């Protein structure tokens, strides 16, 4: 299992919660380093922020992130969102 997480903040930059994600390890995780884990956490944070800004409309969030809806769906699945 690969564990990552994200901190949830309100508009005043106050921490209001945290989310932890567990997903099965895959062949992509073979060379996982602490740096790649940090990148995963940053990506999760960007996805969560885009979803919140788009009021949880995945199409609008995908557009804001500059990816297709399918790519966003796959990343959400990979991170357990």
Structural commentary:
This protein is of the alpha+beta class and 81 residues long. It has one domain. It contains three helices and two strands, in the order E-E-H-H-H. Strands 1-2 form a two-stranded antiparallel ribbon. A hairpin with a 5-residue loop joins strand 1 and strand 2. It is flat and about 35 Å long. The chain starts with a strand and ends with a helix. About 6% of the residues have low confidence.
Number of domains: 1
Strand order of the largest sheet: 1-2
User: Helix content range of the residues, please?
Assistant: 40-55%
Helical segment count: 3
Q: Which of globular, elongated, flat, extended, rod-shaped describes the shape? A: flat
Radius of gyration: 13 Å
Q: Helices and strands: which structural class?
A: alpha+beta
Task: Pick out its properties.
single chain; alpha+beta; two-stranded antiparallel sheet; 3 helices
Give a quick summary of the entry:
The protein is an alpha+beta fold and 81 residues long.
What is this structure's SSE topology?
Layout: E1 2-9, E2 15-23, H1 34-53, H2 58-65, H3 69-79
């Amino acid at each position: 299992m690969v564990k990552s997480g994200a901190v949830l903040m309100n508009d005043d930059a106050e921490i209001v919660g945290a989310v932890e994600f567990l997903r099965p390890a895959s062949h992509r995780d073979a060379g996982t380093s602490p740096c790649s884990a940090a990148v995963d956490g940053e990506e999760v944070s960007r996805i969560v922020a885009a979803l919140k800004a788009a009021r949880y409309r995945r199409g609008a969030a995908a557009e804001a992130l500059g990816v297709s809806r399918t790519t966003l769906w796959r990343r959400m699945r990979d991170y357990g969102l």
